[in-house]
Amino acid sequence: MTQSIKFSFWISLLVLALASCGTGTSLPEASATHLQALTVPTSTQPSPIAPVIPTYSSENALTQAIPIQVAPTAPTAVETIPQIPDCSAGMQSTPAMTEGPYYKPDTPKRTSLVEPGMGGTPLVITGYVLTPDCQPVPGAFLDFWQADDRGVYDNAGYRMRGHQFTDENGRYYLETVLPGLYPGRTRHIHVKVQAPGGPVLTSQLFFRGEVGNQSDNIFDPALLVAIQETPQGQLGTFNFILAGY
Ligand code: FE
Q1: What's the predicted TM-score (pTM) here?
Q2: CA distances from 192 to 11, 105, 107, 109, 242 (A)
Q3: The domain 59-245 is classified under which CATH number: 2.60.130.10, 3.40.630.40, 1.25.40.10, 3.40.228.10?
Q4: For residue 237, how far is its CA from the centre of ligand 1 (angstroms)?
Q5: Angle at the Cα of 178 (from 68 to 219), degrees rounded to 5?
Q6: Which residues crowd ion ligand 1, with CB under 5 Å?
Q7: What is the pLDDT of residues 156-202, one digit of tens each?
């Protein structure tokens, strides 16, 4: 009796083994099923990996509208500060310009003139304050004031007005919006610059390509801000070279 049971067991085992070898697929199917069972939970839950942001290349630029994710903040000073110019190439001191009727002293100390709800094209202007031989001036005072995007000055408060000081490398960084136009003038930003213990330079900054540059009789191309377009807005550079310092 015992011998008979053992014989039946071995026969059954042999039949099962032959069945597995005969199909040639039952083991892979079993493995696939096992893997599938392991992956089901992850496929039905949100992926922990952030969605891939599509890249923008010259190949897809003309054929596909691809949304570009832009940083929510303007470029940082470190990213945008230009190289110190080579004064041996004949750089001229920054020309003085009229103050105009809208200057107010005692402005808030701030590098950004942008306030919540303010309209206009974002604009960053950066650069150095330099001596006539192109040595950076740390701690130089800069006071900016301008019209808002509608061409209106705030003469009651300090909207679109602010002062700051250059950093230890003689650099400044201004966040603002492109000033609007008002009758009789081309687009401009007013500024006062003063090195520690030095004279005050009062001047204005201008923008290339403005129709009003031709008719504004105090426009000076030496005061043009070099502008480049970035996904965050317009990025301008201008270096102030202080005469007599
Ligand atoms: Fe003005």
Answers
A1: 0.68
A2: 102, 10, 12, 14, 11
A3: 2.60.130.10
A4: 20
A5: 135
A6: 100
A7: 999 999 999 999 999 999 999 999 999 999 999 999 999 999 999 99
